[in-house]
Known about the structure:
Layout: H1 20-23, H2 37-44, E1 49-53, H3 60-69, E2 73-78, H4 81-90, E3 95-100, H5 109-114, E4 118-122, H6 128-136, E5 140-144, H7 149-157, E6 162-163, H8 168-174
Parallel strand pairs: 1-2, 2-3, 3-4, 4-5, 5-6
Amino acid sequence: MLYAGGVPGSDPTPISGTPFDRLKDHRLTAGVSIPTLAQTLDVIGTRAVVFVEIKARAIEPHVVRCIRESRADCAVHSFDHRIVTNVKKIFPAIRCGVLQVARHVDPVASLRATGAEDLWQNVEYIDEDMVGQAHAIGARVIAWTANDIAQWSFLRAIGVDGICTDRIGELTAAAC
């Protein structure tokens, strides 16, 4: 959990419950203030795809507005599949994904139900059958969070479309 005080225990208010006028005064390392989504998208521009994970309900219109007003290439995903459904209603053209932790009997049901195109699946539950089912409906499978070379090799071998890792430099160097 991120806290407005910067250190767990220093401020019991989660960032999501902190008013912006108070949050904007908080400093990260090197005295840098916390940027807004609009500021972040402006800095990134068209240099990379920005995957925006929405964690709070009822902010979908605000997030979509920031994305639409930017020139950034974005996709949205969430553990709360209702959020994905809402984003698709507001902005049908945006690429969306559903995050899943468990291996569902029908792993692509949430894609169909929400209109999402990406299945963000916890690496521990990915298998060849799941990848095949997602690809059969034109969806991508993105594994999270895969942090070792054996996982990367397996995921590539079964056709996973993307790997989310904490070790990007090592993944790039491994070129499994």
